[in-house]
Amino acid sequence: MPQKNLRFGLFGARGIKGGDAVAAQLDRLAGGIATPVTSKRGWTARLNYLTRTDHARAAAKAAGLTVTDRTLKAWRGGKRTPSKASLQKIERAYTAVRRQNVAKHLLKRLNRDGRGTRIEIHPLNQSQVPQRNKRVLTHRTMNVRKWDRLVGAWAAGDSRELEAGWDDAIGDLGSDWGGYEYVTNVGFAA
Q1: Would you say 51 and 97 are in contact if contact means Cβ atoms under 8 Å apart?
Q2: Confidence of residue 8 (pLDDT cuts 50, 70, 90)
Q3: d(Cα 173, Cα 65) in Å, to the nearest integer?
Q4: Could you tell me if 182 and 117 are in contact, meaning their C-beta atoms sit under 8 angstroms apart?
Q5: Phi and psi for 158 in degrees, rounded to 5?
Q6: Integer Cα distance of 111 and 147 in angstroms
Q7: Distance between CA 25 and CA 20 in Å, rounded?
Q8: Which terminal residue of the chain, N or C, has fewer Cβ atoms less than 10 Å from its own Cβ?
């Protein structure tokens, strides 16, 4: 049952929380800058994204990127490079702003005017679990019609709300929905 996996992996099961799997798939769908933030091209592209408009600058500041205009100018001019801590802040701010910018579009595509989107749920990996402790879990498909809670939590970076949204979504699986708190993957397209 959900919330009963207090010691997940005790017998060798492997997987990730369902909400985290949904977030990973939403990140893949959101796309973004593929170049790593550690390269000059990567952090320059992210800074351009975060500072091109007043709205983007305000969102970046709200997401935790608080550097002076002088520092930004030095970074862009090649006179200085961001520290590792600054690179992490740039990446976190970029991810947060990118999620906020694409959330509305993804939500519209996933909800599809009330028709929803079909998802595939791959159960947790039980290959290392002793036979007597294995659960019977199969690959499942289902249609999720209301994505508002999941996408909203993803855009806000709220993992607790994401898990609550996942629990709501898998409630339609019937009596074995508790077996899908942890999964290996959740797949869907938008």
Answers
A1: no
A2: confident
A3: 41
A4: no
A5: -100, 100
A6: 6
A7: 9
A8: N
Give residues with Cβ within 8 angstroms of 188, minimum separation 6.
Answer: 25, 110, 117, 118, 119, 120, 144
Residue type, 51: T
Higher-pLDDT residue of 32, 3: 32
Give the bridge partners for 16, in sequence order.
Answer: 183
Distance separating alpha carbons of residues 65 and 87, to the nearest angstrom: 10
Residue type, 146: K
User: Which of 123, 162, 116, 165 is closest to 142 using CA atoms?
Assistant: 116
Residue range 128-163, pLDDT digits in tens: 888 988 888 889 999 999 999 999 999 999 999 999
Q: What is the pLDDT of residue 1?
A: 44
Give the separation between CA 106 and CA 161, rounded to whole angstroms: 18
In this prediction the pTM is 0.86
User: Cβ(182)–Cβ(124) under 8 Å?
Assistant: yes
Say which amino acid occupies 67. Answer: V
3-state SS assignment for residue 145: coil
User: Tokens 């320059």 correspond to what residue?
Assistant: 44
Dihedral sign computed on CA atoms, order 131, 132, 134, 135: positive
Output Rg (C-alpha) for the chain, integer angstroms: 20
- Whether pLDDT at 175 is above 80: no
